[in-house]
Every structure is written in structure tokens, then in C-alpha cells.
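Following up on my earlier thread - several people asked me to post the actual chain instead of describing it. Fair enough. Here it is, all 569 residues.
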Amino acid sequence: MRDDETMNAPTPGRPTVSVAVEPGTHAPSGQTAVVRVHVRNLADGPRDLTISAIGLDGEWHAQPVRVPAVVADATVSVELGIGVARGAVPGSYAYALAVQAQVPGGPGGPVTLLDATVTVDAPSTVVLSVEPAEATAVFSRRVTVVLSNSGEHPAAVLLDSATTRDLRIDLEGQVVTVPAHATVRLPVRLSVARPRLIGHRSRTSYSVVAHGEQAPARSHGVLTSRPMFPASALRAVAMLAVVALWIAGIAVGLPWLSQRTNQQTTAAPASGQVAPSATPTATGGTGGAASGGTGGTGGTGGTGGTGGTGAAQAGVRIGGIITAADPAGFHISVVPASQLIGSSAASGSTTTGATAVNASLTSGSTGGGGFGKISASSLVLQPTGAVDAARDTSSLNDGTWAVAGMSAQSNYLITVSKPGFQTQRFEMTGAAAAAAPLKIAMIAGAGRMSGQITGPDGPLGGVSVTITDGTNVVTTSSATEGTVGAWSVDGLSTPSTYLVTAAGAGFGAQSRLVTLTAGGSAVVDLALAHGVASLAGTVTGPDALGGSAASVGSRSRRPTAPPPGRRRP
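Reply from S.P.:
Thanks for posting it. Predicted structure:
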């Protein structure tokens, strides 16, 4: 009986249900095939319906679906998932679809059986890739989808894409036919949904899937959207504005100072006369909020004031919220940019800056008008504060995190990481980070590693395998049953370089550096040798026993001892 045929209950009298199965159920090995079933209640009252698949091997998994209280003459449509066993050979597999109808709260009712088949797809001969896998754009960027068919027959595939709402892909529902032993290149445009004028860069991942008669082919890519004006350009504009203000101030102030100086020179008494000296009193400056001020300079006979003492600046608070399937436990590292570029200042040391300048413009001191150079001794340099230190914290159960006491003027590198997720990094000033909470959407890592651990006698099980990129550390062990020595890890952050280390009891450790491209995978096989150890001891006896032989297993060594009459130092 075909999948699309209808079968009624094999019971005397009026049938209780009518069942129909949509044809074309298929999936590759290791995936879930979805069976769409339509059941109509032909009884004269409500019935509880239970739909299940029977007759499959034990490695196949099918969860029964229960629909309670289906009224008379009503039709329900359900989807039954059948988990195809890993390694299943491509082909069609027959099974029986069982539908049981029973009165609510009553005993089990009659069962309707319907023959059905599920098809295991063959491995795809179509290889899908995106070039370039990583792209950068302000508004949009054109990439190329490459389809290569290694089979003997043409392959017709349906292209589809998946991404977040921050990115649009012009690729929905396109059907492409790839000739045998040929490659087709299809241009596709990636568009940024919300272009930004200023701000920081944002990375968005996407995937392209090719569906056909065989197993789906999939490729991943990343688009980095950058603002029209980066933060460095804004800082340059701000610096130019400050310089322009200084130039304007000098252009306006110099003529005014020169005029005042000339007026004072003209009002000075004639040669040979001594003008009465004024005795002004200078008032000390008041300390600022960040550091103590410097007293003013008194006139002839006057005394400068004393600066006040400023209070230390409290700093700003940087925080945000992480959205993910499990937002708790993400590691957040906030590192000052000065530490990343090799600054020699250690945590807690101080940096210096000019906080006050005491200069006295005198007239007639050299016998002429105007003013000359300012002495270096009049520039008073005082420490401004401690250099920022790196901070580390973790997100709470709701994804929130925060660190306080950060400098508003310093640049920071904020790194968010957790095993199984893509590591994200942001560079910004303390003021920009404190202006609004950072909203960070974490996605699962797309990288994968696998391999085989072997020893002198063959595969080794129970060997510890450690994978780290300097930020996250993932630990697993090789299998002790089934495929002994095999190991695999999914959800690695890409692109990145990892150090893979295998170590087992009685064996020396082996390590290898592995580079994963965006969404890439790698096979890392490591061979362990027996560990090398050393033994040491002292031979004692009535006489000096220099030259005695010691043996360990099949190896012997003649220890070194001092000659008679001499003691070992």
C-alpha cells in the first residue's frame, strides 16, 4: 500500500478512524525525517488518538504523538518525527504506522495499521561554498555562492539562507541546476539591515543551504558591518576642532596681550626715576575635582597662594546584557588598550601630566617691552592618577554584567567568551561603553575538531584531550567503547587557532597547533609514545660502593660514586 493511501480500522462494523500519510518522507542518516499524518475521527463521539511508528530497527527513534479528545467527524494533522540511525545505508525503509483510537478515560481501543516508507538520502555530490567567507561592508557587499557537482548526473538544488534580522540575503527560493562534473558560480548580495553613521563594528553570521534529492549541502559565512565614520575618524575630527580653537584663541589673544604690554611700557616713569612699588597680594588657586590646584604668583612683595587638595575621580561603570540560549556564565574581560600595545606601566603605577602652569609675564625686566621664552622650571608636572587595570567578571543568570571604576577617557578591549559560543570582541572608550548598556547576542560556535588517539599498540581510549585558543579551554577524552581512541568537539569559535594537547597515564603528551577558518573543521590525529621517566637513589654499604650497577627493567646503569676516602659534596 502506498504512503498516500488511506486505511480504515480493521474492526467489524463501522470504522473508527481514517488515516492518510503524505508521501516523500526522507532525511539523510543521523537526521530526523518528518512524517505528516492526517487522521479523521469516524466514531460517534470524541476519541483520544495515539499515532506511532513500529517495525523500525532499535537504532531508529520515533516518539509517539498523542492527540486527546478529537471530536466526532473531525480531522487532525500531526507531524511524527523519525530519527534515522547514523550510518544508515541510503535507500527506502518500510515501517508500519499505528493509530489507536480510544474513548477518553476508557480502555484501549482498536488499532489501525498503515504501511509506509521512509527514504534515507544518499550523500550529496554537490559541494557548496561562499567566497569570500568573511566580508566587510557599510551598506551591502556582493559575494559568490559556488556549487560544484562531482556526480555523474546533473543535480537540481533549491538554495535557501538563514541569518539574523540584522542582515538581508538576496537568495530566497532560487533553483539552480548544476551539470555533472561542473561548477556554477552564483552572485549574491548581502545587505546590512540597519546601516550606522557612527559606532563600532558588528559581526553577523549567516548560512546558505542547497536542498535536493540528496543530503543538503551547507556553507557558513560572516559579514562585518562597519559604520560610515569609525571611532578613529571622530577622534581625529575632535582633535582638529581643539587645535582650531587653540589657534583662534592665540590669534585673538596675542594682539590683546601685545597691546596691554605696550600700554604698561608707555606708562612707566622716565629714566632715573623710581616709581612706587605696589604690593599686590595673590590669592591661592582652588584645587580641582581631579587634582590639587596651584597657587597664583604674587606681585612685587606679594606671596603666592596655596593650592587645594582635589578628590580622586570615581570613574565610570561599564555593563551590558548578553542574549543567548544560556546567558549565564559568560566570561567578560575588559583590558585597557595601553596593556595591549606593550605599555610599561604596571597596575597601580602612576602617569604624569601637566596639571598646572605658573608663568609670570613681566615687563621692563630686560629693559624692553614684550615677553620672551618661558622657563622650563615654571612648568609644574603633577601625577594625575593610576593606570587602569584589566578587569574580569562573569554574566549572571539573566545575562547581565558590569564593572565599575573605569576611566572615561581610556580605550578598552571588551572580550565576551564561553565554550560552545563564538567569541566576540569590542573596542571602545570608557565613555562610549558607559553611555548605554552593551547588548550582545551570542551565537553558537560553528567550528568542529575530531581525531584519533593511538599508541604503540594501537588506539588508546580514556586519553585526555585539551583544546584552547588562549581564551576558552575545552576538555574531552577519547572513546573507550565503540570506535576506541576517537574524539570530537563541536561548537568551537571560528576563525581561530587552537592548541590541541593529548595526554594519558604512562604516555608522553603530544600537542599540535590547528587553525580553523570561519565555520571550518579539522581532523587532528595524535600518536602517543611511552613516557620517559628518571630514577635516582643512593647505594649504601660497609664500604664505598662506587661502580655498582643498577637496573630498571631491561636497562642497566652504572651509578657514579666518589672514590674511597672521599666524600660526595
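The two ends are 95 Å apart (CA to CA). That should answer part of your original question.
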